[in-house]
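To illustrate the input format used throughout this study, we show a single complete record. The first block contains the structure-token representation of the backbone; no residue identities are included at this stage. The design step must infer an amino acid for every position from geometry alone.
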């Protein structure tokens, strides 16, 4: 039965290959793919494989990529890492962060091949990884099957299994057991995720902690930070970070309400996907940073640049973290603002980050709001009570700095999977 399902998936993916190629071209035209690198999505790459041990790590998008940066640093000098991602935004982020971390030449970025058997086989034949590692919840049948066929050890790190995913996978217990059973080692981000993975048939599961707890502080350009700090001195300011469609209109309504009692209020909106900046600026009649527009004297400013979220969390210590006000939501990374001492609010829909919410709630470093009215009350309250704002931020920062040794431990586990005949550098 499982063999038939797997074969059916492989046949379906092969038949869809022409449509997938067309879709890639369309995505490139919309800026969602890097046109010059589309062949990588089909496993085509003329770059020579570097000598020595090579670990293939796959992180789907920005959040997963950020979580493993400390692991990449821990692997430096011990193995080359081929890091694949699936979005143009993650590629742009890595182009900035890898040089900052001194990882150029140690980490190679490529776009992941789509899950078409011939494309995956071409990718693996070229790169010949000694170990393959997937981040969080990446379970692509053809990729896993091809790795197993080549006897490449497999690891799943920071594994998560949300309520929705667990319910879905339980409908296909045999397939879940087959896919999860492919992994030689699984590190879950928490005991709840580990328990669900075990129930679905995973083996060698442990729960050492969430890599996102061990991530470094988001960076910020010191000159720009100094400039904006001076420019915003004594001005009321707050940030709506990682917002998703529909939330920005609610944030604008919050701004109007709070500005009535706080003259000169600046609301910074940093959308989760910066490519939405132009449309948001037009919709909200607001200036935007990527267009070179400066800070308004009062109003909304669209911060639609890549890699500057650490700057916004530092200049606006009152932060709402998006993808949480409108169902189904799911939430975004709360630990990034927590580490920087922000007073944080989220909406009610944070199902993908329940552990983070619970941690910050228990520490008294998070305010949960039900709707835009609640968010307006939070913003006004934090502006009116700086001492309470600092207290919330201090509690959040203290609770977020955990598992400092986890990236090193994860790197050691990955290295332990290298075949014994492959010498370490």
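Output of the design step:
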């Amino acid at each position: 039965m499982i063999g038939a399902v797997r074969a059916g998936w492989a046949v379906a993916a092969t038949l869809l290959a022409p449509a997938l190629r067309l879709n890639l071209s369309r995505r490139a035209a919309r800026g969602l793919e890097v046109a010059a690198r589309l062949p990588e999505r089909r496993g085509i790459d003329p770059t020579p494989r570097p000598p020595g041990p090579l670990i293939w790590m796959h992180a789907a998008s920005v959040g997963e990529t950020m979580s493993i940066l400390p692991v990449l640093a821990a692997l430096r000098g011990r193995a080359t890492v081929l890091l694949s991602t699936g979005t143009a935004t993650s590629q742009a982020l890595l182009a900035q962060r890898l040089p900052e971390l001194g990882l150029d030449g140690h980490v190679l970025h490529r776009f992941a091949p789509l899950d078409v058997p011939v494309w995956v086989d071409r990718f693996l034949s070229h790169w010949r990884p000694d170990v393959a590692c997937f981040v969080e919840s990446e379970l692509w049948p053809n990729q896993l099957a091809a790795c197993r066929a080549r006897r490449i050890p497999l690891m799943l790190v920071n594994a998560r299994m949300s309520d929705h995913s667990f319910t879905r996978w339980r409908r296909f217990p045999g397939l879940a057991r087959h896919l999860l059973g492919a992994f030689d080692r699984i590190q879950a981000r928490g005991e709840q995720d580990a328990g669900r993975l075990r129930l679905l048939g995973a083996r060698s599961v442990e729960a050492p902690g969430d890599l996102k707890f061990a991530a470094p502080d988001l960076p910020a350009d010191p000159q720009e930070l100094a400039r904006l700090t001076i420019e915003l001195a004594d001005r009321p300011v707050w940030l709506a970070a990682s917002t998703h469609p529909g939330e920005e209109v609610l944030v604008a309504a919050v701004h109007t309400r709070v500005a009535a009692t706080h003259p000169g209020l600046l609301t910074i909106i940093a959308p989760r996907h910066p490519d939405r900046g132009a449309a948001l600026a037009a919709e909200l009649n607001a200036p935007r940073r990527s267009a070179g527009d400066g800070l308004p004297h009062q109003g909304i400013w669209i911060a639609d640049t890549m890699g500057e979220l650490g700057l916004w969390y530092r200049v606006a210590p009152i932060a709402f973290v998006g993808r949480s006000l409108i169902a189904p939501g799911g939430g975004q990374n709360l630990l990034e603002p927590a580490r920087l001492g922000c007073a944080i609010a989220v909406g009610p829909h944070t199902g993908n980050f329940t552990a983070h919410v619970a941690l910050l709630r228990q520490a008294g470093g998070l305010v949960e709001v039900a709707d835009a009215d609640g968010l307006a009350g939070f913003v006004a309250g934090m502006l009116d009570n700086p001492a309470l704002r600092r207290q919330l931020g201090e509690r959040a920062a203290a609770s977020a700095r955990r598992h400092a040794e986890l990236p090193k431990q994860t790197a050691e586990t990955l290295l332990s999977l290298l075949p014994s005949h492959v010498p370490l550098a």
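Structural context for interpreting the output: The first strand starts at residue 54 and ends at 58. Confidence is low (pLDDT under 50) at residues 421-425.
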